[in-house]
Amino acid sequence: MDNLSRISAAAVVAACFAAAVAHAECTREGLLAAAASYLTAQSTGSIEGLPLATENFTYQENNAAADIGSGILTQAIPIDLNRTTADTVECASYTMIISASGATPYVIGAQIRHPPSDVDTSQIALIDTIAATTGDLFFDAAKTLSYISAEDWGEIPPESDRRPTREELRRVGDAYLDMWTDAGAADSIPWGTDCERVEGSALTRPCGATLPRGGSATPNGNRRYVIDETVGSVDVLCSFDSLGSLPDSHEVRIEAGLVKYVHTITVMS
């Protein structure tokens, strides 16, 4: 499938789900339970226990429609670290997996979406995966594991002024991806002085240093969002078109109005 076809197919799927779930709210517990079934499937290499929708289920891998029966979920991989965020407004979740100890290392970002009528999250309508491995941008799963395992992604109390709003998270997520085309985007982001940025396995501290400031004419498109205010997270799966239509995940955590962590997963092939 060529890049244009990949982008078009993924964009249609994302737009349909965004429009459909705009009115629905799911439970956090249900979203996390569905994500747990995904983790079991990935660790065992078996999709039999996944509660996939009987109609209109879609699987995407690295921004292309794919057969779930022949994708990465059929590989049993050891999971050295995982973390899931839940978006109750969009009936979606984001799960990060780091597998550094297996024969083939991976860093995976996966968004799971549920049908709009399925507020109990008993069915999975879309699994949307970015899976990086050896040869991808700055890839070294062991180094990535050492950095990210030291981070604190604890829940931010709802009464605390440290918890960001959905609007704030969406704005910062978009501004980050806009830095390659908008010379002023970097200065619009509230960087924390202790912020850490992990791009593949490349660590930058503070993460507000050495930033792109425009230069590309092609914006990063096909953006799909999972926003979880409880942990101050926005994850955006996208096509990193500023560098050449690369399958990509960018996740940002905000605490007390400032960016604390940035994670990126970028597939080169």
Rg, Å, rounded = 17 Å
Order of helices and strands: HHEEEEEEHHEEEEEE
Largest sheet: 6 strands, mixed
Which stretches are low in confidence, meaning pLDDT under 50 for 5 or more residues running? 16-23
CATH class of the largest domain: Alpha Beta
Number of domains: 2
Helix content: 10-25%
Measure the end-to-end span: 13 Å
Q: Which labels suit this protein?
A:
single chain; 269 residues; alpha+beta; Nuclear Transport Factor 2, Chain: A; six-stranded mixed β-sheet; 4 helices; 12 strands; globular
In brief, what are we looking at here?
By secondary structure, this protein is an alpha+beta fold. The chain folds into two domains: 28-133, Nuclear Transport Factor 2, Chain: A (Roll), CATH 3.10.450; 166-266, Nuclear Transport Factor 2, Chain: A. Helices cover 21% and strands 31% of the residues.
Give the SSE layout.
Elements: H1 3-20, H2 28-44, E1 58-61, E2 64-65, E3 81-87, E4 92-99, E5 106-113, E6 126-132, H3 141-148, H4 166-178, E7 191-199, E8 202-204, E9 221-228, E10 233-240, E11 246-255, E12 258-266
Parallel strand pairs: 1-6, 7-12
Antiparallel strand pairs: 1-2, 3-4, 4-5, 5-6, 7-8, 9-10, 10-11, 11-12
InterPro entries: DUF8021
Domain DUF8021: 163-266
Keywords: Signal
